[in-house]
Amino acid sequence: MATTITDSAVLSNGVRMPWLGLGVWKVTEGQEVEQSVRAALEGGYRSIDTAAVYGNEEGVGRGLRASGVSRDEVFVTTKVWNADQGYDSTLAAFDVSLNKLGLDYIDLYLIHWPVKGKYKDTWRALEKLYKDGRARAIGVSNFHVHHLEDLLPTADVKPMVDQVEYHPRLAQPELLRYCKEQGIQLEAWSPLMQGKELLEHELLTGLATKYGKTPAQIILRWDIQHGVVTIPKSVTPSRIRENADIFDFKLSDEDMTQIDGLNRDSRVGPDPDNFNF
């Protein structure tokens, strides 16, 4: 299990993806996102997660270049937005994202949401980008088990990642189990439930005291010990560093089970089955 910030999960195609990354959802284009990316990379992070719809790919690219960290050391994820899904439109959207980021390739390209009637054609486009070497890995985001079961029989390349809302109130045990069986790496967005309620929960504050950590660090460690890649978002350099300070301790099996017990299947984001695409 991960013991340093540079430790990586190995995807099904052998590509290494850091266990911890910086998410930049709702981080403003311009100085804010550029400084967040720089702070993360200077703090040892080697994974940055953005998306076309976030509107900050250009700032992410500037932050990468300003950091001085070599391109081949950084794992960059972006995603095709719902309005651009379909075969040709996805290929075009990929070029736009690549140009905005100022990169020659993407480490991980994801379908942002499972748009019914479109995600299979979109996946064919991702397969082409992968086979052409323009994306080192490809995957999906916000796919339930039934979406994956629908996609896999027609896919030439199996998704390497499924990025979903995942935190102690939404532990998704069935999806986690299915992804492990299929060799698909589960990844958590909103791992801290956007700061709502969890950070003040008595179980987590008690465990924070026990381990000499913060409740946020307890949650992020719980993710990683479940084999889930995690990408907490922050724009505060001190919080970015704090979120990374999770590799010098290990939660006991008993404490992991206690945190598992917080699951209520409750979301802070949309349910992929009821999303207004």
In short:
This protein is α/β, with parallel strands linked by helices and 277 residues long. It has helices spanning 31-42, 57-67, 87-101, 119-131, 145-151, 173-182, 202-211, 215-225, 237-244, 253-260, and strands at 8-10, 16-18, 22-23, 47-49, 75-80, 106-111, 135-141, 161-165, 185-189, 229-230. The protein is built from 10 helices and 10 strands.
Main traits of this protein?
277 residues; alpha/beta; 8-stranded parallel beta sheet; two-stranded antiparallel sheet; 38% helix
Question: Mind explaining what this structure looks like?
Answer:
With 277 residues, this protein is of the alpha/beta class. It has one domain: Alpha-Beta Barrel (TIM Barrel), CATH 3.20.20. Helix content is 38%, strand content 15%. The protein has an eight-stranded parallel β-sheet with strand order 3-4-5-6-7-8-9-10. A two-stranded antiparallel sheet has the order 1-2. Strand 7, helix 5 and strand 8 form a beta-alpha-beta unit. Helix 1 crosses helix 2, helix 2 packs parallel to helix 3 and helix 7 packs across helix 8. The radius of gyration is 18 Å and the shape is globular. The model has no long low-confidence stretch (mean pLDDT 96). Belongs to the aldo/keto reductase family.
